[in-house]
UniProtKB/TrEMBL annotation:
Superkingdom of source: Bacteria
Gene3D superfamilies reported in the protein's UniProt record: Metal-sensitive repressor, helix protomer
InterPro entries associated with the record: Metal_Tscrpt_repr, Metal_Tscrpt_repr_sf
A Pfam short name: Trns_repr_metal
Organism: Lachnospira eligens (strain ATCC 27750 / DSM 3376 / VPI C15-48 / C15-B4)
Annotated GO MF terms: DNA binding; metal ion binding
Coiled-coil annotated spans: none
Protein name: CsoR family transcriptional regulator
Any GO BP: negative regulation of DNA-templated transcription
Length: 99
């Protein structure tokens, strides 16, 4: 359920969604720490780039899951409630990822 708090919107996620998103972010965080460690240890550029590619792929996967959840919950609910500005917000957000 979405709540308005000051000027920021929030969303309460069920336990499964919350755990899945947090687990994905923890893995990505670990990958980024690993990349930093590789740079600090003067690892070969291609090896670092391969790890960066893996981290980007994991972040893209996180984004897809979050976007899917958003469309199926927040966007559907808002459209049913007549809040058509949510569609424009979604279009702008998707546009940011397509740059």
């Amino acid at each position: 359920m979405e709540k308005e708090c000051c000027c920021h919107k929030t969303k309460e996620r069920d336990a499964k969604e919350y755990k899945d998103l947090c687990n994905r972010l923890s893995r990505i965080e670990g990958q980024i720490r690993g990349i930093k460690g590789m740079v600090e240890k003067d690892a070969y550029c291609i090896d670092i780039l391969n790890q960066v590619s893996a981290a980007q792929s994991a972040l893209n996967s996180f984004t897809k899951v979050l976007l899917d959840n958003h469309i199926k919950s927040c966007v559907v609910r808002d459209i049913k409630e007549g809040k058509d500005d949510t569609v424009e917000e979604l279009v702008k957000t998707i546009g940011k990822f397509m740059r």
